[in-house]
């Protein structure tokens, strides 16, 4: 494999830097287990350099005309599109996701976020509030230096989804990628410099959880946006509270996908496949509890299994590969444990369930039927290619069961009855819902969770609220009245 060793472990103040005193980070190609790059986790000196340069750059950036800021973001979007082929290859090496996915879902999704917020940058104005003679005007201000902390499943997309709205609002960002996918965000940082952003505006600090934790409580950090698991979210939210910092939390889920009796079966099956096996099931919003009406469950299962059997597992860089490995061996073990527990608790394994022989962290697409609500595989987030089929009889019952979870990230339903579709969606406790689709997350629409799945929204105009603050200015036009 060609070398993907970056010129340094971190990208700070416009250049690669390293401090070999930091603990080693091995970047492993999940398809073979081979180490493809070795980096060093941030030391306190690296963290200090990153935050200090971001603080400097933020002042320069916020002083630019918004349209000029937008122009830089737009150039980054163009560069992401132009370099999509090489960036997708790197994404596949960093994560193990198949190249046929990364070519359409990672740098391209990042580019869309940058293009969207590039356009929005110059429109972020305040409002005027008439009060008779006096009036109030508002100014939308940046927060300062924002900290982004990423998960491993979408390293380019997560970095871009956080950086684009943050920078459009006039903030700077320090981004800490997941320690298992440290490569892609560094490339994004290079592109910001190439596009003309001030040095320090978007810094990447690689490291483990402790490096991110040390930044969360730094007095110069105004906001923290995390994509990660619920336990990490709870820790980061609590730590950020010490300084009353703004937070956005994009956390885990156990989302329902409901297939009503009148659903278009082939479309529903396509959605169930996408909602469970895309990115080898490593997607937070996956619809892993597939509720199928009892009258159609046999037909549904027959076709689902028939189609899922044809999935091609293989080298992520092979254009024919449809399913890549899990991110790490540890994650694969965790998923295999859930599969074992599912069988022990009485669910019926009808496809997959094994790790194929040979190198790499592969796991077969796995389908369980006869899953019941209290089983562990129906309650906990697995974060792997494991689809659970549950059956239901009527609408009220399935809504109650769908909502019976601590999570609330996403939900989907399939029906041809639009009255029912809207009635059910209105009752579902989820931040993002799909009617007759699943897992599409266009930048134009808000994305995020309710309940334990998170706080705040990414994408769309909604993200602007989470990366800016409003100053209210009262203007008096007459004399000041006083009691004496
Ligand atoms: N809602 C969403 O948008 C998404 C949520 N996820 C969730 O993320 C999880 C899988 O990703 P992982 O990387 O394993 O999650 P994780 O929660 O272990 O780590 C996420 C990030 O937080 C950092 N971190 C760990 N401890 C920290 C601490 N005490 N303070 C500050 N930062 C800390 C890690 O280094 C990593 O960069 C899944 O549970 C999944 O549901 C993943 C992708 C998208």
From TrEMBL:
Residues annotated as the enzyme's active site: 250
Keywords: Metal-binding, NAD, Oxidation, Oxidoreductase, Potassium
GO molecular function, one term: metal ion binding
Coiled-coil portions: none
InterPro entries, sorted: Ald_DH/histidinol_DH (IPR016161), Ald_DH_C (IPR016163), Ald_DH_CS_CYS (IPR016160), Ald_DH_CS_GLU (IPR029510), Ald_DH_N (IPR016162), Aldehyde_DH_dom (IPR015590), BADH (IPR011264)
Top EC class for this record: oxidoreductase
Domain Aldehyde dehydrogenase: 17-473
EC number: 1.2.1.8
Keyword Oxidoreductase carried by entry: yes
Any one Gene Ontology BP term: glycine betaine biosynthetic process from choline
PANTHER family: ALDEHYDE DEHYDROGENASE-RELATED
Family: Belongs to the aldehyde dehydrogenase family.
Record's protein name: Betaine-aldehyde dehydrogenase
UniProt source species: Pseudooceanicola marinus
Gene expressing this chain: betB
